[in-house]
Amino acid sequence: MVIVNPSLLTVGLISVALLHANFVMSQYDPEGHKGTTGNIKQVFEGRCWDYDVTRYIPDLPRVTASCEELWKLFFKAFSYQPPCAVALENYQPYLRSATQIVPRDKVLFWSGVFSLAHEYGNYGRRYVTLEDTLIGYLANSITWCGQSIDPGYNVTRCPAWDDCPLEAAESFWAGASMTFAQGAKGEVLLMLDGSNPDKAAYRRNSFFGKFELPNLSKEVTKVSVIVSHALDKPKIDVCGAGSLDLLETDVTERGFSYVCHDDPLAVLHLLCADDPSSRECKLAIKHIRGDLDPSKVDPPAFNKIQEFF
Ligand code: NFD
Questions:
Q1: Given 207, 208, 211, 256, which residue is catalytic?
Q2: Percentage of residues in the chain with pLDDT exceeding 90?
């Protein structure tokens, strides 16, 4: 029988964590090699019209360029070109025309936690991600690449990002990430995955590490980090150790202040809403109701209480 110090248990229960499969959901399918998304022009322009009507985020400035103009600039950047040789600069006219400056203290970056970050940001209402801005919204989760012959884009197969250094979509996201970081102001938030056995939470070669952190504007004061952990899974990367140590160094060397929180309650509650039957969420519920027998529960993997926001 495991005897648990009740105060330890209390603290541990509150530091419940996250899941991998659920919050690492994004559009990337390594085996996919799909061609350019069907009806890409209509999808792009339709999204653009809809962004102004139903997706409009009150604090973000409206873009003056028309949806047709934006499509032309985006298409020109990669069409009729080899898919592996699209320079970041090609997207500059589109990026310049579609840029919106995000209000101070509202920018949210993420690595490995696509779904969770967008849920936490409430799709632009609490925090604004690149994909909540028009630049990212129009391109998110679609595939594209060029070819020299008509119609100028390949409908059957686009290379994987890892197959070539300047893949059409990878160059886009690099340029978009830089632009997004250059416009950030005040305190920025970064959400990371602390439960991936194959990828460190912070990597210098991630888009965040390569294109966002190095391009943060001088108007940024602080980088506030949330490390999320999959519910009932080992906590591999935590604040103050491993890759988070490296992140603190990289952030403070650039003159920003740094703070890091493992599994803040607001994030934990989101995870428990998706997976209330996980062991950690069930324990938390029992604890809240006061009907937990401490002698029957193993201590959690780490014991930090995080009161955050
Ligand atoms: P990540 P991160 N091949 O989760 N952002 O820090 C293909 F095809 O590791 C947004 O690198 O975090 N896709 C988007 C890949 C894309 C590959 C890039 C690969 N080898 C950057 N590697 C976006 N919305 O798609 C990674 N990906 C794709 C900006 C895959 O879709 C955001 O502002 C994965 O979900 C955010 O702050 C996504 O790239 C940061 O950079 C992110 O990879 C996230 O890039």
A1: 207
A2: 77
Please give the mean pLDDT across all residues of the chain: 87
Tokens of 35: 């061609």
The pLDDT, as a whole number, for residue 255 is 97
The two structure tokens encoding residue 69: 């103009």
- C-beta of 28 in contact with ligand 1 (< 6 A): yes
DSSP label of 215: G
**Residue 161 and residue 152: Cα distance in Å, rounded?**
19
**pLDDT value, residue 297:** 60
The closest-lying atom of ligand 1 relative to the alpha carbon of residue 114 is 35
Q: What is the pTM of this model?
A: 0.87
pLDDT, residue 224, reads 98
Atom in ligand 1 nearest the alpha carbon of residue 209: 6
Own/partner contacts of 50-53, CB < 8 Å, gap of 24 or more, are 51/134, 51/137, 51/138
CA of 300 from ligand 1 middle (Å) equals 31
E strand or H helix at 95, and its extent? helix 92-98
| Distance (Å) from CA 24 to ligand 1 centroid | 11
Report how far ligand 1's centroid is from the alpha carbon of 297 (Å).
38
Question: How far is it, in rounded angstroms, from Cα 241 to Cα 8?
Answer: 21
